[in-house]
Amino acid sequence: MQNCQGNGRPDKDYENWRWKPDQCDLPRFDARKFLQLMQGKTLAFIGDSVARNQMESLLCILWQVEAPRNRGNRHMQRWFFHSTGTAIIRIWSSWLVHHTRDPIEDAPMGIDKLHLDVPDEFFMEHIPKFDVVVLSSGHWFAKQSVYVLNGTVVGWQLWRPPGRSQKMAVDNMAAYGISVETALTAMAKHPNYTGLTIVRSYSPDHYEGGAWNTGGSCTGKVEPAAQVVRNGFTDGMHRRQVSSFRRAVEKTTGASKFKLMDITEGFGYRHDGHPGPYRSPDPNKITWRGPDGRPPSQDCLHWCMPGPVDTWNELVLEILRREFDSP
């Protein structure tokens, strides 16, 4: 769905713009160097579909030097590079915390209940096996869900308890911050996790004229914005994530390390880098606005490959150089 050229996108400039950080250079990704640094090690992407987007970007780049073997299953994707014994893993964890659809208080069966103070037990079970973890989360907090703390409903999104008039204590931004702190604190205190955790900051979307489910569009964006595209929700989610990261790191008791990879503002410029309407190989898909001006269904959240998302993996490689490369 992120193969924009394969899906018929006619322009290509979005592939060639590169991020130039202030006061330093960011080298192009060196696939052989990555596999050398990760020899005998495992890197796991944990989180939502944007985590999958970044993982697939990394695999596409590494595939240029070696085709990996797929050794995964429906619970955990696993790609193995034989030459160096490097494994790339992906674990799906939409919210990074425990969730259930069972009824609780007024919230009926079928609605996702997020236990914000309990980390996702599936990925926590596996993290001692990982040398590097890249975390991605946040966008599922725009979906319908109920927030639970200490077994009590404290907030909700796109649902409201019948007959309840009082204001909720925790909205979706606050819930996101709590979930990040819960997951990272559990990792920081895990006695058997000694790996490096890279927290990739909140990925900005660029829907205009509506949200992902209300007709939002990025059709026609073919070059980066001249000024960063600001979004109040993105800014709020980013602030919550960063402050939660800092609080969790202060609680570190184990041997693990934590790095914040802050891409949010830099990628606020890249409204050109999303698939937009080019998210399907269907040759009959509609890619233009209708007579009434309404845009076609599109994706202004994920990132084209190749495209801006590849930069995230260049940043990951730079972090690995500093962590694992011999002086």
UniProtKB/TrEMBL annotation:
One of its GO terms (molecular function) is xylan O-acetyltransferase activity. It is found in: Golgi apparatus membrane. Residues 26-318 form the Trichome birefringence-like C-terminal domain. Keywords: Golgi apparatus, Membrane, Signal-anchor, Transmembrane, Transmembrane helix. It is a single-pass type II membrane protein. Residues 2-25 form the Trichome birefringence-like N-terminal domain. It comes from the Eukaryota. Residues 271-292 are annotated as: Disordered. The keyword Transmembrane applies. One of its GO terms (cellular component) is Golgi membrane. Belongs to the PC-esterase family. TBL subfamily. This is Uncharacterized protein. It comes from Spirodela intermedia.
